[in-house]
Amino acid sequence: MPHAALFTRALSELAEQLPLPALHLNAAGNAALMEDGTALPLPLSLAALRHVTVAALPLHPFMLDTAARKLLEPITRNQIDLTEKETLLLSTLRRAGDDGLPRTEITSMVLGYAADTDSHALDNLLYRLRQKLETLHSGASAFIESDNGITRWCGGA
Questions:
Q1: What's the pLDDT band for 54 if we cut at 50, 70, 90?
Q2: Cα pseudo-dihedral 35, 106, 81, 144, rounded to 10
Q3: Are 120 and 104 in contact (CB under 8 A)?
Q4: Which of the two ends of the chain, N or C, has the fewest CB atoms closer than 10 A to its terminal CB?
Q5: DSSP 20
Q6: Residue 82 CA to chain centroid, in angstroms?
Q7: What is the structure's pLDDT at 130?
């Protein structure tokens, strides 16, 4: 799937879940345009979206605070700090749902690399995030499942 199509799909799914202003891909395909004409460069970053959304998103059994870049465990009130890429990864996996996403799409959407780039950056990101999840909740590292090139959040459910 071309980068522009992935971006459009991700934006439409995000718009259904959050009260965001409409974002559209510009003609050159290198920026998202907000309703007020503000251009956000691609790949999107949390810094670019910080003024657009401050929502805490449910990510069973946690809450993902994208603005503060934290993952919260509501029962124990424990939390972990996330990097921008970790937050984008969790948000992307949340939007993908049970179907998950191919690693090429995640590499493109989250890391900003070309889909055909052979890099261990995604593997390293997943490893670090799983380690953090384990400190938050025993067994939580298994909540991110990778199978046959598809990565998904299974949330322990």
A1: very low
A2: 130
A3: no
A4: C
A5: P
A6: 12
A7: 94
Amino acid at 151: T
- Average pLDDT over the chain, rounded to an integer: 77
**Sequence-separated contacts (24+) of 98-105 with Cβ below 8 Å:** 98/152, 98/154, 99/150, 99/152, 100/145, 100/150, 100/151, 100/152, 100/153, 101/150, 101/151, 101/152, 102/149, 102/150, 102/151, 103/146, 103/149, 103/150, 103/151, 104/149, 105/1, 105/6
- Domains of the chain by range and CATH? 3-153 (1.10.10.10)
Rounded to an integer, what distance in angstroms lies between the CA atom of residue 11 and that of residue 24?
8
CB 70 within 8 Å of CB 62: no
